[in-house]
Amino acid sequence: xxxxxxxxAGNDQPRDPADRIGQLRGAGVQVDGRRVGQVxxxxxxxxxxxxxxxxxxxxxxxxxxxxxxxxxxVPVTFTVAACMGLLGGSGSNAAGYSxxxxxxxxxxxxxxxxxxxxxxxxxxxxxxxxxxxxxxxLVSPASIVATEHSSSGVFVVPAILGGxxxxxxxxxxxxxxxxxxxxxxxxxxxxxxxxxx
Length: 197
What we know:
Order of helices and strands: HEEEEEHH
Number of helices: 3
Structural class: alpha+beta
Distance between the termini: 49 Å
Mean pLDDT: 83
Number of strands: 5
Radius of gyration: 33 Å
Shape: elongated
Helix content: 40-55%
Low-confidence stretches: none
Number of domains: 2
Strand order of the largest sheet: 3-2-1-4-5
């Protein structure tokens, strides 16, 4: 009498779905879903924390630059050397211009300086600007300096990211405490059952 295994070709018996996956070589791979979830949550929390810190530093730096331009800046005449068109989105839409040029401050001529803003200026044209002595890269058109001021608005995004981080950590702590409480209650119930028998 011969019997065929349930996995043999031509056998009409239903197959267990777990039998369809075979090993090629070596040991099989076991994936612990709980561990994968912990790693993903750890990556999300780390990303939120890093982004909150980075955006906070950027906000502080932006506010400091605005303050320096307002308090320490002096008027200069910026001569545009060239402007390059910037593309946005998929690369088919114009997003503005990036211009660079030179200016003179305190007897020193600073060249190849980037001019903030996205307006087009013809090469050779001049722009009224504000520059900070001792920091040649900190120059901005006077029209932008007049409208820009340090603000707490730069901290909205970091606050939202930090809030998400705190909420997720608090949620994880609550879930972990509930899980531990349920496990200890289950262990106490087993001990009572064993003691009562």
